[in-house]
Amino acid sequence: MKHFQLVLLFSFTSILVNGQSTHSLDFNRFGLRAGANFAHINFSKGEPPADTKTTWQPGLVAGVYIAMPISNKLAIQPEYLFSQMNSAVKENDVLIKLNYLSLPVFLKFQLTEQLALMAGPQFDLLISADGNFGTSQKLTHDVEESSIAATVGLELTLYKTFAMSGRYMQGLNHIGIKQSGTVQEFKFEMVQISASFSF
User: Where is the Outer membrane protein beta-barrel domain (predicted)?
Assistant: First the structure.
């Protein structure tokens, strides 16, 4: 199932690239991105809601992107990212580490020469999951594989091909995680700060 979902994600991006064939490839901008995620798994937004208190935790994000212009102010920007979305449960001090392959697909609008607004869906496929219950424990098979979210952010170009961006992601679907034989659902929230270099 996971391999099928990966094929769908790559096929979707290929369609986007082919759809831009009226533009010269010289105008396409490839780039590298790296930064930090601050994520939170919110059980109160699960189904049914649970009063499990969790805290925001840091993680890494890194990957590549391509900006495909539609006009001089508008572009489609898909990205392929390795993304860590971690969180901690307050009451028992459990750290949950979730590693994803993330594919955000942005509609990027250039507000000014330096500032751009970005918004779009994000698709995530689980790579691995661990829980630290005093000792590390694999949770990969206990967490649902895929999620979808809505992401919005701003990007500030500081110098030619170097930019900084800030994003907020809100999970849209419920993600189940097995806990003591029962399934508890949650939704993601995440703030991401990253730097990018385009070429």
Answer: 29-175
